[in-house]
Specification:
By secondary structure, the protein is an alpha+beta fold. Helix content is about 35%, strand content about 20%. Strands 1-6-5-4 form a four-stranded mixed beta sheet. Strands 2-3 form a two-stranded antiparallel sheet.
Length: about 140
């Protein structure tokens, strides 16, 4: 089985110039935890819900509530992960699982060529949804 068989195609993306607030809005609207960051059609980073939480939390004092609120107005480029791993749409699911486990990440952008043209995203949820089919339901 290949990554292309179970990945989410045409994922929602943002640009480095989007605000974190707008990116969070997209995550909530589309119920996703990862947003590939593209510039001129090329993958340049990844933004996760974890990146956003680290930007806004922890709140140690009530006064920090306002500053964390304002931090949502910064650009995605300021908090996105610039070091990211990719999978090719022709890679095996086994390779995808190895990357997810070894790198301790929960979602990986899927590209179709060396220029990082994104065609999908694969999350551990996609893999688990497929794995469900290998286990019979309890009667």
């Amino acid at each position: 089985m290949k990554v292309k068989d179970i990945m989410t195609e045409d994922p929602i993306t943002v640009t480095p110039l989007h605000s974190v607030r707008d990116a969070l809005g997209l995550m909530l609207e589309y119920n996703v935890r990862h947003l590939p960051v593209q510039e001129d059609g090329i993958l340049v980073g990844m933004l996760s819900d974890r990146d956003i939480r680290q930007c806004a939390i922890p709140l140690e004092e009530e006064a920090e509530l306002q500053s964390s609120h304002l931090r949502l107005d910064i650009k995605v480029s300021e908090i996105m992960s610039k070091k990211f791993f990719t999978l090719n749409h022709e890679d095996s699911i086994r390779k995808a699982i190895e990357v997810i486990i070894e790198e301790r990440i929960s979602g990986v952008p899927v590209v179709s060529n060396a220029q990082n043209h994104i065609v999908g995203i694969l999350s551990y949820i996609d893999i688990l949804e497929e794995a469900k089919n290998f286990f019979p339901e309890d009667s």
